[in-house]
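Much of what follows relies on a compact textual record of a protein's fold. A complete example follows; check for yourself that the lines match position by position.
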Amino acid sequence: MNIASLASRHPFRGGTGYNASKYGLLGLTEAMMLDVRYDGVRASVVMPGSVDTYFDGREQVPERTWRLHVDDCAAAVMQLLSYPPEAHVSRIELRPSQPPRNA
């Protein structure tokens, strides 16, 4: 299970290093999925959008904002783990449902 970012598919200005690292993680996960699937291993990636973290220097706030919460990402991971062995979801793109209109 890898946690990348929507920036791995939708880069943003000023984030060259971040975008490249997430693109690399997406490629690693997809290639790994192909290499290990017949060994009974499922490789998946969760790609969240804006998450309320300390990433941009802001303090986390206890109440919900428009951003995703870390628990939303954890729920996506748990959902992936809940599938039976015959089912494989290789990627989840997780976005805030109502970001600011100017974002």
